[in-house]
Each structure stands twice: as C-alpha cells, then as structure tokens.
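hey m, so remember when u said the tokens were messed up on ur end? i reran from scratch. heres the input so u can diff it against urs
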Amino acid sequence: MGHVVVKYKVTIDQPEEGRPDYEGIASVISSMEEVQACEIKPLAFGMMFIEVQAVLGEGEGIVDGFEDSVRKIDDNVGQIEALEMGRL
C-alpha cells in the first residue's frame, strides 16, 4: 500500500470570548503521528489558519479518519480543506 501527502488548511472559529488558541491547537496537531509540518499563517483581517502537511496511507476512509481526528482536538476547529494531495 502506498502513501499520500495531503496539505490542509484548518480554520479556527472565533470563540465567544477572547482570541482563538492557534498555538495550542497547532501544537496538538503537530504531535499527531501523521503530521510532517504544521504552520500558522495569516488569512485576513487578523484571522489566521493552520497549514498542515500530513503523510497518510492509501485506503478507504484514512483521509476522513485523519480529518475527524483534527476536528476532535478543539470545539473551535472549523473547516478543514484539502489544498493539495499527491502520491509518494
């Protein structure tokens, strides 16, 4: 079975009070086994997003499982968008 590299854009929803914890969420994402790179980048109007590069095995449901794991990190994790995908 081969592997795929997927680059994601993870947006964080604004909490009711305060600023989103981009650093904390990025730290948890970085510690995931599949993640090769994780970087906080500017989006617009002071908002940020987390760019994640992950190496995942090929197979049915593996990509969806990874995305679900990222969503479970924090209630404020919003949209997860695949920007690029390629085979290794």
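this time it looks ok to me. The chain has one domain: 3-87. if urs says something different then somethings off w ur setup not the seq
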